[in-house]
Design a protein that fits this description.
Layout: H1 18-28, H2 41-52, H3 60-64, E1 68-70, E2 77-88, E3 94-104, E4 108-110, H4 112-123, E5 126-127, H5 129-144, E6 148-157, H6 158-161, E7 172-179, H7 180-183, H8 185-196
Parallel strand pairs: 2-5
Antiparallel strand pairs: 1-4, 2-3, 3-6, 6-7
Bound molecules: zinc ion.
Zinc ion (ZN) binds next to loops.
Length: about 200
Amino acid sequence: MSETSEVIVPEAAGSETIADLARKMLIQLGEDPNREGLRQTPERFEKAMRFLTKGYAQSEDKILNGAMFSVCYDQMVLVKDIEVYSMCEHHLLPFFGKCHVAYIPDKKVVGLSKIARLVNMYALRLQIQERLTSQIAKAIQEKLAPQGVGVIVEARHLCMVMRGVEKQNSIATTSAMLGAFRENKQTRDEFLSLIRDAKP
Ligand code: ZN
């Protein structure tokens, strides 16, 4: 099994549910979990956390298999401004922004919507932005075997901006360049200029 196709199965967390733990956390924070506004919060929190980590139960095989097509097209394919919402694994706080994915096919392409789904799958796992970026690139490299793939993620991290670690507007940018995107400056420059082009 390749690194990108692994499905991480969380270890059993004992008998306490996430809702139980959230209730305890509220008490530790000095709150009264029985007051009206918080009464259903532990259950809502559990539901939200399950949703925000549902990418663990998905795999790139399921998303991409059956969605790849043979073509005689060898120009750059670009999907830009894919919205990304993920959670940093260091603080369990959201980071969000945009992802741009490009590749140059070598006989195989994939449905464009599948690329956004792939991004979303990795985003719905606890992440650091660097790994999110490289996992997307590696999955496309392994499944499509293109001439190259480039991925750029631009995101704002609430763990930074809310805690005042960085200036409120700082955006972290990460990139993963494989194949032609790594070896050929012209290809990389074309990708970067297409991303910077004014939005339609
Ligand atoms: Zn963080």
